[in-house]
UniProtKB/TrEMBL annotation:
<dbReference type="InterPro" id="IPR027417">
    <property type="entry name" value="P-loop_NTPase"/>
</dbReference>
<protein>
    <recommendedName>
        <fullName>Heparan sulfate 2-O-sulfotransferase 1</fullName>
    </recommendedName>
</protein>
<keyword id="KW-0812">Transmembrane</keyword>
<keyword id="KW-0472">Membrane</keyword>
<dbReference type="GO" id="GO:0004394">
    <property type="term" value="F:heparan sulfate 2-sulfotransferase activity"/>
</dbReference>
<keyword id="KW-0808">Transferase</keyword>
<keyword id="KW-0735">Signal-anchor</keyword>
<dbReference type="GO" id="GO:0000139">
    <property type="term" value="C:Golgi membrane"/>
</dbReference>
<keyword id="KW-0333">Golgi apparatus</keyword>
<keyword id="KW-0325">Glycoprotein</keyword>
<comment type="similarity">
    <text>Belongs to the sulfotransferase 3 family.</text>
</comment>
<dbReference type="Pfam" id="PF03567">
    <property type="entry name" value="Sulfotransfer_2"/>
</dbReference>
<dbReference type="InterPro" id="IPR005331">
    <property type="entry name" value="Sulfotransferase"/>
</dbReference>
<dbReference type="GO" id="GO:0009101">
    <property type="term" value="P:glycoprotein biosynthetic process"/>
</dbReference>
<dbReference type="InterPro" id="IPR007734">
    <property type="entry name" value="Heparan_SO4_2-O-STrfase"/>
</dbReference>
<keyword id="KW-1133">Transmembrane helix</keyword>
<keyword id="KW-1015">Disulfide bond</keyword>
């Protein structure tokens, strides 16, 4: 293409990607890949910082946000990241224990920051054994509300209605939902589908610089007894059902996007083309 046409194409690109950040799901690692790529790939990255990290927006703020994204041309193309917005979130089964210790010991990303439960030395196993409220599933592993929407029922922990709504939204409203345990595959598929933003992301991740950016300090794996006790909770069962649903959907998408050869994953080439185009153009 002529240089002037390439410049015009980029300047007129109004693509917007919105990343739904679910806490403790490698979201920091992922967004830092976007920050590293934005200069080279020529797009903007914006963090949506809500008061007290509230995942629910007021109706008036929803209107303001939609107006901003629609009309803020100087920030297009743009990658927005924050809570409670589609299009490409990550979820994790490991969030429960990780978040418990994160509130007490923080992580290696901002080690000097004082956390809300700092000084509490009780292990996760001890908390579950004593029936403590700090390790209850509804406090530490709610991912369904982030996918359910702004209906009041979405925030009722253990709601079967919220689960089904979250499943519906995952399939119908999201471009891609990944799982933290398969983060590299998630990044690879995004690079293939959205190279305008994610060209070079897979190599960046594989280089190791961003693959494990943020680690919770002092995290101790729970015992089998602790896990068995948690699995008796109805909230855990419903949240786990949603995780399994998301994992199955991600694996389905991946199966139609990449192939494995000699232990390496490769993105499939374009498999469709156009023909019989009428009327004929001279």
């Amino acid at each position: 293409l002529d240089k002037s046409l390439r410049t015009t194409s980029i300047e007129n690109d109004d693509t917007v990607i919105i990343y739904n950040r679910v806490p403790k799901t490698a979201s920091t690692s992922f967004t830092n890949i976007a920050y590293d790529l934005c200069g080279k790939n020529r797009f903007h990255v914006l963090h949506i910082n809500t008061t007290k990290n509230n995942p629910v927006m007021s109706l008036q703020d929803q209107v303001r946000f939609v107006r901003n994204v629609t009309s803020w041309r100087e920030m297009k193309p743009g990658f927005y990241h924050g809570p409670s917005f589609p299009v490409i979130p990550l979820i994790s089964r490991l969030r429960l224990v990780s978040y418990y210790y994160f509130l007490r010991f923080g992580d290696d990303y901002r080690p000097g920051l004082r956390r809300r439960k700092q000084g509490d030395k009780k292990t996760f196993d001890e908390c579950v054994s004593s029936g403590g409220s700090d390790c209850a599933p509804e406090k530490l592993w709610l991912q369904i509300p982030f996918f359910c929407g702004h209906h009041s029922e979405c925030w009722n922990a253990g709601s079967r209605w919220a689960l089904e709504q979250a499943k519906y939204n995952l399939v119908n409203e999201y471009l891609l939902v990944g799982v933290t345990e398969e983060l590299e595959d998630f990044i690879m598929i995004l690079e293939a589908a959205l190279p305008r933003f994610f060209k070079g992301a897979t190599d960046l991740y594989r280089s190791g610089k961003k693959s494990h950016l943020r680690k919770t300090t002092e995290k101790k794996p729970p015992t089998k007894e602790t896990i068995a006790k948690l699995q008796q909770s109805n909230i855990w069962k419903i949240e786990n059902e949603f995780y399994e649903f998301a994992l199955e959907q991600f694996q389905f998408v991946r199966a139609h996007a990449v192939r494995e050869k000699d232990g390496e994953l490769f993105v499939l080439a374009q498999s469709f083309f156009y023909e019989k185009i009428y009327p004929k153009v001279n």
